[in-house]
Amino acid sequence: MKILLAEDQAMVRGALAALLTLEGDFEVIQACDGDQALSLLKQQEFDLLLTDIEMPGLSGLELAQWCQNQAAPIKVIILTTFGRAGYIKRAIEAGVGGFLLKDAPSETLIQAINAVSRGKRIIDPELAIMAVGEQDPLNDKERRALRLASEGRSSAEIAASLFIAEGTVRNYLSEAIAKLNASNRIDAARIAKQKGWL
């Protein structure tokens, strides 16, 4: 099985790759962030994407969405430190086959990879219950603008990055601030991150 492992922490990525190589008949290709992962997904065929959520560039959830939109969808397992309700809900909506926390035992990961490759869905029951929580009020455009704002980018930089007008960026950020009852864009990003909506 050919697996693309997307994880921005080098030590974690190396340990996971070594574990997978030892534990199963897996060929593991590594990506250090979301953008490199997308580039590899476009160049090569993979059976499964094993990805973190929070990474530079594209997030694991954005990668999962991309995988779902392909003619032959690639199976996806999210492996993260954060069991936030918003993340889990968005992962389920993106058609993710598995959602595991990084503190799960290694045999749980191997079992999940094998189960997801057979078309099963593996999500910790407690995490699945959490996903029923609050509704995410942000749309994708507001989320992208807010994510870039949380990285300290100016409206002009966000506009250039998203290929939209600066006024449109301000509108997206204003909408996000209002929806989250936040005092400013930094506060809005903090709230959205805590809820797993960013």
From TrEMBL:
InterPro entries: CheY-like_superfamily, Sig_transdc_resp-reg_C-effctor, Sig_transdc_resp-reg_receiver, Tscrpt_reg_LuxR_C, WalR-like, WH-like_DNA-bd_sf
Domain of life where this protein originates: Bacteria
Positions where 4-aspartylphosphate occurs in the chain: D52
Span of domain HTH luxR-type: 131-196
Sequence ranges assigned to domain Response regulatory in this UniProt record: 2-117
Listed CDD domains: LuxR_C_like (cd06170), REC_DesR-like (cd19930)
Protein name in UniProt: Two component transcriptional regulator, LuxR family
Protein source organism: Shewanella loihica (strain ATCC BAA-1088 / PV-4)
Lineage of source species: Bacteria, Pseudomonadati, Pseudomonadota, Gammaproteobacteria, Alteromonadales
